[in-house]
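Protein entry
_____________
===
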Amino acid sequence: MRKPHIQVPEVVRMKPGALARLGLYLARPGLRQVLLLHSQGLRSSILDQARHSLSAYGVELQAAAEVTEASVENAVERLGALPKGTQAIAGLGGGKALDVAKYVAALAGLPYYAVPTSVSNDGFCSPQASLTLRGRRKSLPTGLPYAVIVDLEVCAGAPVPLWHSGVGDLIAKLTAVTDWKLAFHARGAPVNDLAALLSDATVYQFLASPTRDEEGIRLLATALMLNGVAMEIAGSSRPASGSEHLISHALDTVAARPALHGLQTGTAAYLLSRIQGRGQHERIAEALARTRFWESVRQAPFSLADWRAAVALAPSIKDDFYTILSERDCWPEMEAWIAEDPHLRGCFTP
């Protein structure tokens, strides 16, 4: 079913010093009163830079609040406390703050400015917010941001594991699209060819320069953003989320200390690509090796027991979501490859 209207970001700025011009990007379309929601523990220098930028361009900071809980209840509470006259909402920092800000903006019908301080996943420009409702994780529709502001200098200063998480989340698009096409052949699930093509293309675009420098960060941020657009085109998460995301969501449930989302999805994509058998495995292996992805995984190895439980749980995470995990028990093959694959040495503990 074709969506009647596709919403895409109208303002996209990815360059060094973009945060210092946040006020300008708000002032140009006449948005002079803003609510700022930011991550807990955000570096004071980043927050001060945002505040100074707003003041410098005549934008009034109606209120600034730290987000400690990514829940529907918290978002509704913030909606109730929304200052009168607020014209836009900006989310500054990481996942929790961006998801809450995005959802509050959607509820209030206000323009949303996404200002991520790292490129750890595609959530900063996805058409949904990942929030808990009564303690259970939900993906709630929001639409895409009005503006995406990525300061390459700020993102370059983020911890290396966050960069690797973004790489892993991007690489996972290859297995996600394969699962999507598998669902079409097995169950007749509709596939939007443009969205699938765009999702695949973002990976190849990044692989032109998979380095943690200004150009590599720009390419990764652009690729993750365009995956959000692909989801908006498709009207679902299918272009960006498949069996590897089901395993990651299951790990979030069963693991005492879940890893970064992209470290989980990237590792799962690497393993599942061999099982899918569509010629993606070598490409994924090369990308993860070139970016030294496995170094971040080895800093806090996965639990083999957690992965065994997660793979068993994963097919039940989403109703009517057909993937390679729906066809057979993939764990025996995955466990064997974990034991023998040199890339995975040191990435798992018993």
Notes: The CA atoms of residues 83 and 102 lie 16 Å apart.
